[in-house]
Amino acid sequence: xxxxxxxDILVKGACYRLLAETVASIPGEGxxxxxxxxxxxxxxxxxxxxxxxDVAAAEMCFSSFLASNEALEPSSDERELAAxxxxxxxxxxxxxxxxxxxxxxxxVSRVLPCLATGDKRAIAxxxxxxxxxxxxxxxxxxxxxxxxxxxxxxxTITRLLASKLSWLLAAKSCSPSNSSPI
Length: 182
Hints:
9 helices; about 180 residues; globular
């Protein structure tokens, strides 16, 4: 498995029909992993989006991705680590969603290559949590943010607009928080 993918990237990638391109920018070979609940959570968020374009095409993009990748469930030890991370984050007034905490626990427990996330708040929280739990020692350098994935692939905003202009103009919103993905 080359990476774990969070729901933010799944929603944004599917809404813009750039999920395959985004995942292709992650170094390594093989398939990706997502939380098992992503099937329901991401589908729900896609249906809630006020897309001027074809919602069915976004759903198809996501379904196609799911079919060629792996749904993962955290083990009891991984759920325990996720709960500890969330408690530590709360004590430090940091923003860490349960999805990110579960993905991080899977990442470090199974020694997977990386986690790709569209949640910059989670990345900032995880950096501050490194010193709170020795199990996070191997986390450094293994988190990839959406913007970095795009930059590493040298896909510029101009190129994205040129290749996907109709989708970008059709999308009024593309993330669960209704914030701009770019």
